[in-house]
UniProtKB/TrEMBL annotation:
This is Cytochrome c family protein. SUPFAM superfamilies: Cytochrome c. The keyword Coiled coil does not apply. It comes from Tateyamaria armeniaca. Signal peptide: none annotated. Keywords: Electron transport, Heme, Iron, Metal-binding, Transport.
Amino acid sequence: MFDTMTFTKIAGSLCGALLIFLLGKWAAEELYHTGGHGGEQAYVIDTGVEEVDEDAVEIPFAEVLASADAGAGARVFRQCSACHKLEAGENGVGPYLHGIVGRDVGAAEGYAAYSGALSEVAEVWTAENLNGFLENPRGWAPGTSMGYNGLRSVEDRANLIAYLDSVDD
C-alpha cells in the first residue's frame, strides 16, 4: 500500500505547501509595510489648539491634597506600618508618625536612629516636604537611612498625608 515513493511524494507536497505558505506570508508583509509608516504626516490640519501631553500637565500638590481621601490613605499606610507606628511614643524600626504633619524633623521622642540627612533638607514636616520625601526618600534626602523606594502616585501620597494628618487630633 505505502511504499517509499508514495511517502516521499506526500512529504514533498507538504514541504512544498509550507514553502508556498511562507513565501506568501513574506510577500504580504513586504506589501503591507511599504510606504514608510511612522514618518511625518504629509498634511497637518491646524485646529488652533496645541496638543498637550497628559503626563506633562502637573497638577499642583495643594490641589491634589485638598481632594485627598483619608480612607484611601489608611490603605496606603499598610505599607508603612511594617516600620512605623501611629501611636505617640511607640517607635518601631522607624519613628512614630503620630503628629508628623507640622512636627519638627528628627523630633520623635525616644527615637535616636535618625541619619541626620533629613534635618539638612528641611526643618518641619510640612505636607509639601512629606510629599517630596514620600515620592523618593533617597533623592529628596540623600543619605537617609529609610530603605523605602517611595510612592510614585501623587494621589497615594496625598491620601497618605491626609490620613496621617487626620489621626493626630
